[in-house]
Design brief:
The chain is rod-shaped, with a radius of gyration of 50 Å. It has seven helices and seven strands; from the N terminus they run αβββββββαααααα. Helix 6 packs antiparallel against helix 7. Strands 3-4-5-2-1-7-6 form a seven-stranded mixed β-sheet, covered by helices on one side. 45% of the residues lie in helices and 19% in strands. It folds into two domains: 118 residues, Immunoglobulin-like, CATH 2.60.40; 86 residues, no CATH class. Strand 3 and strand 4 form a beta hairpin. By secondary structure, it is α+β, with helices and mostly antiparallel strands.
Length: 267
Amino acid sequence: MRFCIAFVYFIFLHATVLIAQSAQIQGKFINLDSDKSLKVGDTFQGKLEIWPTNQKKIDFKKEDLIGKIIMGLFFTQNIESINQSANNNEVLEILGQFMLVREFKDQTLQQLKLNETSIGVSIEGMKLEQLEGEDFKNPTFLFSNAPFKIPSIAPYVIGGFLFLLVLSLAYFFLLKRKKKRRLQEEIRRRNQLKKTWTEKFNNACERKQFEEIYYLKKEWDSLLDIPSEKKRDFFKVMEEHQYKKHWDDIEMNNVIQTFHEFKKSVD
């Protein structure tokens, strides 16, 4: 219990000291190019004064300020010097080149975050172009005061994945549709060929018709379901007579009879 009370007292005392130091440390930001009117994006010579420096150790380098936005208003382009004032060694003078990055009206007091201390800084010699009405309600920001963050690539990855997924599905359905159409065309072609050869089989009664069926057997063999032995008998008879110049009645009847047996499978 005593430890908790002591800890709370320590925190309270530390906060009191910080508040006291913050209240004592002051600052002033002076526009050394006070003769010209500034707008967002304009650069100027400026000087930041902080005092008294003996109340709190203020130790930083040029690199700690260059490229940073101070008070949410000024972008530090370059720091020329950081020195104690020649007139008062308790005053720290920071001389540099700054850029106005935000429009504002109140020049009396701005907050400067320095380490753990918030310093009230007055602004002097800052002549801004007059901001009225809607222009001031919607001020222009040249830079964001928030720290730079690398944009997340997750939305682009997800978007790209969804795009590729949709593209793949579209390609799959188109390919399937094309394959189905090709299959239907092939079925129609085979059916038409089957019908043509069925008619040839039914109308065959002359030698040239029998010979056409025999010579073109590779075209109809896969279309018509004919037993192998029937085909073999017909082919054997045709092989016996195909080279004869003329067929007599016996030979013709032999071919016709074998073909009729052969044709029954087609009917």
